[in-house]
Design brief:
A 3-stranded antiparallel beta sheet has the order 2-1-3, with no helix packed on it. It has a domain of 43 residues: Rubrerythrin, domain 2 (Single Sheet), CATH 2.20.28. By secondary structure, it is mostly beta strands. The relative contact order is 0.16.
Amino acid sequence: MPLYEYRCKSCENVFEVRQKFSDEPASSCPSCGGEVEKLISQSGFALKGGGWYGDGYSSGSAKPAPPCGSGGGCAGCPSAS
């Protein structure tokens, strides 16, 4: 279940509430009973393990791309197909 952070408009108390997505948002402060507002806080996100980018898509040694004759990018280049 997600953890939501709230701040009381009366006493400035900041608190967290673990709620389901379907639950109604908190409406009162547990300290003073005042009106609260939901805060937007940074979420925690971490990729753990060997790294999907390093070993999930490679099947051996990578070959360098052949040089482009036009000198530009490959977007829209007929030889990129």
